Protein 1
Amino acid sequence: MAPYCVLAARLRHALNSGVRRYHVAPVLCQRAKVAMSHFEPNEYVNYEKLEKNINIVRKRLDRPLTLSEKIVYGHLDDPEKQEIERGKTYLRLRPDRVAMQDATAQMAMLQFISSGLPKVAVPSTIHCDHLIEAQSGGEKDLRRAKDINQEVYNFLATAGAKYGVGFWKPGSGIIHQIILENYSYPGVMLIGTDSHTPNGGGLGGICIGVGGADAVDVMAGIPWELKCPKVIGVKLTGKLSGWSSPKDVILKVAGILTVKGGTGAIIEYHGPGVDSISCTGMATICNMGAEIGATTSIFPYNARMKKYLGKTGRAEIAALADEFQQHLVPDSGCQYDQVIEINLSELKPHINGPFTPDLAHPVSDIGAVAEKEGWPVDIRVGLIGSCTNSSYEDMGRSAAVAKQALARGLKCKSKFTITPGSEQIRATIERDGYAQILRDVGGLVLANACGPCIGQWDRKDIKKGDKNTIVTSYNRNFTGRNDANPETHAFVTSPEIVTALSIAGTLKFNPETDYLTGADGKKFKLEAPDADELPKLEFDPGQDTYQYPPKDGSGQHVDVSPTSQRLQLLEPFDKWDGKDLEDMLILIKVKGKCTTDHISAAGPWLKFRGHLDNISNNLLIGAINVENGKANSVRNALTQEFGPVPDTARYYKKMGVKWAVIGDENYGEGSSREHAALEPRHLGGRVIITKSFARIHETNLKKQGLLPLTFADPADYNKIHPVDKLSIVGLADFAPGKPLKCIIKHPNGSQETIMLNHTFNESQIEWFQAGSALNRMKELQQK
Ligand code: SF4
């Protein structure tokens, strides 16, 4: 049976049988019944199924397996027949669960509603974290957000109740921290509609960031496709100590691999150094693997994970993991596609940036480098927290630095903010005194949410356009991400270094060697921070912020007003008309870096994430036009006038003209946001041609019926000019592995032909033909 037929047969069965839970959990688990989480007492960890699948695959491949191979192949839909070749074949997988953050959940749930299915097929959750703007501090900001976003929160809560999805209310915390505290466990496979989902790898899970359409597939009980990942091994030796922290491991790896070095690969950490890192520290490292384009990152099950599971009320899962430990660590003798070795004993504190997370500098060098490069050395704001670094240990180490400054009568010279990762962390650091120490040193504790990390920051200390420096313990520092100011030089580093630098107020301070002057005029050095990885007492859970889905939500009404400015039901995209794409205009030829932040900006635009037409007004407004070096200024090829990108796209759409985008390397890196694919499709785009794509964005484009294509010869990027017309020919014979032809028509009448590659497999070609993956799913339903 062809792969697509298997998919179709299974989908038909899923849709007809009424038994929608295809994931491996409940039925097959006989050895021990341990719930996957406290919130789903009837959904069980199923290591027996994992073991069975691993044994089948090991026998077939007849070689030792890496850890990520064990977990990924342990979730194969058909382990007997699945073709497995790293970097080549597409795997059909059965993830155990789905998580969605509020900004991406809106579109995912709107697509799920369009699918017509009554209930999700696997345990799924929604997390309200992205829509809370940092302004005056925790409680006030939360109240304001609940008021402003009431319509969206109500939609997500009611859609969750109707379709069986758990709902984490605003104030509960950041998705990845909640997942680590409650849902990730060794051996789980989880997909999340957020690029930092790999955070859960700190607990030994395969946790992968995807677009909403992928999440809809899994929630619909359809096997989820992933290109069989390569495996990069990072061998850790030595021991972390002093000012060096888990963040420095990933900052160092980012410097080695760069923002696209992990593309198509899982980063697998191993070696004796692993045990010197706390579980939450391992999560930090996995979290930021997204910055190097990795599919995900993972650590092997160990005593630090066991301790964390015990402290978060999941000792039963740890006991079961002990029993199945051989499947939760790599086989000895397994082969990696590439190996990097890092001696933790020699690792120095790092700070990366500005404008890109792979520009690595030892903290000892940054002052001199900044002066040489003309980057402002005075730090305006230090920001700690986010999903990357908001653990109890992170807060403890920052508080340990702050305490030393306070003892000498000092406060932060820079402004200083703290974002707790979850309500549980907030309540526990309040109880244990860390929050007060951080406030005493000058900090403002913000809501348990993403806040400035995603541009939700009502920043008042500078004007837009002012050149300035900020340091954060976040993961991303793309231009304008935090405050929409392209002149903000953002650097990422560990929370304890952010705290030390905020006290000193300058990038020229190296806490390992430099002295501060106390209020008494005496010089002193900060000692390297030391803090407990977990609280001595139990965690304080704080306020109850979870809404269970009812057993039967079928009577629940879900509100989407036709006049809403925030929510809009989706219309299906048009089907492929069976013809080649001829004489397309070029909306923009992009110069240089083009992340999903450039394609669909966050910050103030987050409020339109549930309304496709409104959010399309931010299409590509951050991308630089090669023709004039400007952002959001492109030539309208029909009128010859320059204007904003979205307006030009709308004009072409109105005139019935299809268009293309030309991009550079690693197009669409960054967030998983599928709006970056939905928007061009909505406004009439058909083709995106680049030198290379980031993984999630490439899949998102395919899912929405666009053609992501790459130059067979990257130098052909220079052959296309913004005023040319493009035709993609040979679509009638569109087939996996077969390049497509592109005819470039220049304005002087000459033309030339170039070849374009693609990574479509058979079922993905059907998505294109149907207009989108969702259209295809509906076609199958109707059959
Ligand atoms: S990276 Fe920032 S915006 Fe994304 S989930 Fe983490 S805290 Fe939120």
Protein 2
Amino acid sequence: MSGFTAESKDEHVRKDISCGCGGSVLSSALMKILVTGSSGLIGSEAAGHYDRRGHQVFGLDNNMRREFFGPAGDTRWNLERLTKSCKNFTHLELDIRDRDRVLELFRKEKFDQIIHCAAQPSHDKAREIPFVDFDVNAVGTLNLLEACRQANPEAVFIFMSTNKVYGDAPNEVPLKELPTRWDYARPEDYHGISEECRIDRTMHSLFGASKTAADVVAQEYGRYFGMNVGVFRGGCLTGEHHSGVQLHGFLSYLVKVARSGETYSIFGYKGKQVRDQIHSQDVIAAFEAFAERPRPGAVYNLGGGRENGASVLECISKIEALLGRKMNWKYVDENRKGDHICYMSDLRKFQAHYPNWKLTRSLDEIIERMVKGA
Ligand SMILES: NC(=O)c1ccc[n+]([C@@H]2O[C@H](COP(=O)([O-])OP(=O)(O)OC[C@H]3O[C@@H](n4cnc5c(N)ncnc54)[C@H](O)[C@@H]3O)[C@@H](O)[C@H]2O)c1
């Protein structure tokens, strides 16, 4: 433990923030970076990216995705890929629920940046394991934030949140039905769901609730303690390195089923429900932009936006065109509880704060790479 009292630590933070958040505090120097959930989709992209840039990367993951989703969710292949390809990557077999070991790790390593992606990520799964879900998503996040505050409060802390913090409130936006998709009916909703959408008095699923708890706690470490915390509410995050399963990883799973010839089940909304896909590389580019000029406690929606929005039926058509054959799917006339009918992230707040960031991967390109197994 350091000798700081909580108060003196706060002062230390404020001093650092006041001189640090306006400039490129972290862009040029080599950093010690902790990535949690480093064997998962976003974590592995972050680990590989920062390793290629010469930083020292610590990847924390206990392969809990396998416990959640069975063998298809196993992420060890991704860990092996990272250990083979990275130059300065250390794997930490650690559970973010293990508070003592997390505190010890932070005291020992003094990270400059934390990218927190470890999670129980499925809203349907959470109902079967409410304690585990809350302990991983909410308590695990608190463990990391508090460990960071105690050990290195000036670090940049990026938290990967989710659009499920809005629960099913986005379904209240008036919609129009088009031949292959739902879309927003009013011109003022054209750009999608913004950070102004309310997060309470809405049905989240237990997953959405545990992530909302984490999201609000993370904001507090930015607002109350002045730490360089950024909260990113993901739309549909995707890429070749997802261990997609039916309960999580929509596009990855859809492509997997299409390639194997098995049958995909569409749940409700006539298959016209819209998701906005963002490639994991574009997610990491957003983290990097934030880390260069952090805004303590800021919240951003981050997804593919209207540009990369498509319905399940439209995604199936794109995959069929690439495969040159029809895929097998069946329609189940019952939507998933609380599922969004049409969700496209309004990216304008992030783009206004970080104008150099933009989407670089179109939906067609994303799907093509996944179908070809790139
Ligand atoms: N993929 C999406 O579409 C999406 C959408 C919105 C938000 N998110 C959020 O983004 C983050 C990353 O998502 P992802 O798709 O990369 O998930 P992922 O499941 O691919 O990766 C998460 C990783 O965390 C690890 N993990 C889980 N519990 C752990 C624990 N207790 N201790 C240590 N490691 C643990 C898992 O083994 C897995 O490798 C999550 O917070 C998720 O809620 C994802």
